[in-house]
Design goal:
Elements: E1 2-8, H1 12-23, E2 28-32, H2 56-72, E3 76-80, E4 83-89, E5 92-97, E6 102-110, E7 114-115, E8 125-126, E9 134-135, E10 150-153, H3 158-165, E11 173-177, E12 194-206, E13 212-218, E14 224-228, E15 231-233, E16 238-239, E17 243-244, E18 263-265, H4 277-295
Parallel strand pairs: 1-2, 1-6, 2-3, 4-17, 6-18, 8-12, 9-15, 10-11, 10-15, 11-12
Antiparallel strand pairs: 4-5, 5-6, 7-16, 12-13, 13-14
Helix pairs in contact: 1-2, 1-4
């Protein structure tokens, strides 16, 4: 298999890159292990994406339809499989898949996004190794046990998104978070369903009674002990890296400027700061467009200044 541009990851950044590349006439291959826009489909509410999308499911269907349309027109190949590593070689790039296939391309655009961190790797959280938390952003209110509050670990941005998605949900969320997340809590501080506690540390155990026991040491005040049947994760994200020639920075994210010229990076993988659907789409389209011009030796220039039109009476 060979393409002019291989795109790894079928989320908003990857789909935008494929659309741009196909529109420029590039032979494009999209590598995706699951459904196109599968993670987007589970977002409950969208209020910062142009186009009037009400939820992630509607946007995901539209993104998947874009890829289906390009495939039907012969302008894109969908490669179903999990990418393990990307490499730059003398004549292009190689993307190795878990099943042993190798996709050759002139360049590869990596848009693998982010994944949830393991609770045991979070500095302020002491949790059993291997504990898997149900993500808040995927949780429907009906799954939260009535009566006692659900305990949410972390105050990342999906907290506000979830509350906006379920404005009438009669739930209570006891949110424990580190000082690093405090600036993110402003948008939910007025919601009566939320109790926010900034903590220095929290310890989680799972007891024989089927409940989670959480001991929280607040930044200010005495320790709190909580028991809950519903423990949810909202701890942010970490880059979903591939092996090979990707160059991550000290924080694990991949600055596009630090990569090999044939290895492009787009979407949430670039930075912890710009993890939004709109910024992902823009970066994917921009990376594909930059590759197109760069491969043809077109310089990045604004050109000469525009001439000011003369006045008719001058």
């Amino acid at each position: 298999m060979r393409a002019e541009l291989a795109v790894v990851g079928g989320g908003p950044a990857g789909v935008a890159a494929v659309l741009m590349a196909a529109g420029l006439g590039l032979r494009t291959a999209l590598v995706e292990a699951g459904r196109v826009a599968g993670k987007v489909a589970e977002i409950g509410a969208l209020d910062n994406v142009p186009g009037g999308w009400s939820d992630g499911a509607a946007l995901a269907r539209a993104l998947a339809a874009d890829i289906d349309r390009l495939r039907a027109a012969g302008r894109c190949t969908l490669v179903s499989g999990r990418a393990l590593r990307v490499r730059a070689c003398e004549e292009g790039t190689e993307t190795e898949l878990a099943d042993g296939r190798v996709l050759a391309a002139d360049a590869v655009l990596v848009a693998t996004g982010v994944t949830a961190p393991d609770p045991g790797d979070v500095p302020w959280l002491d949790a059993p190794r291997g504990l898997r938390l149900a993500p808040l952003w995927r949780t429907v209110p009906e799954r939260i046990a009535p009566g006692a509050p659900a305990v949410v670990l972390g105050a990342d941005r999906p907290l506000g998104t979830w509350l906006r998605a379920h404005p009438d949900a009669a739930v209570r969320l006891d949110v424990l978070h580190s000082a690093a997340d405090t600036h993110k809590t402003e948008e939910v501080a007025g919601d009566s369903r939320v109790r926010l506690t900034e903590v220095r540390s929290a310890t989680v155990t799972e007891e024989d009674d089927g409940l989670f026991h959480v001991t929280a040491v607040p930044t200010h005040g005495a320790a709190r002990r909580l028991r809950t049947a519903t423990l949810l994760g909202n701890l942010g994200s970490r880059p979903a890296l591939l092996d090979g020639d990707l160059v991550p920075g000290p924080d694990g994210y991949c600055d596009p400027a630090a990569q090999h010229p044939r290895i492009l990076v787009a979407g949430d993988l670039r930075s912890a700061r710009y993890q939004r659907i709109v910024t992902a789409q823009g970066s994917g389209a921009e990376a594909a467009l930059g590759h197109y011009y760069g491969a043809r030796g077109v310089r990045d220039t604004n050109g000469p200044p525009a001439r000011r039109p003369s006045r008719p009476d001058a």
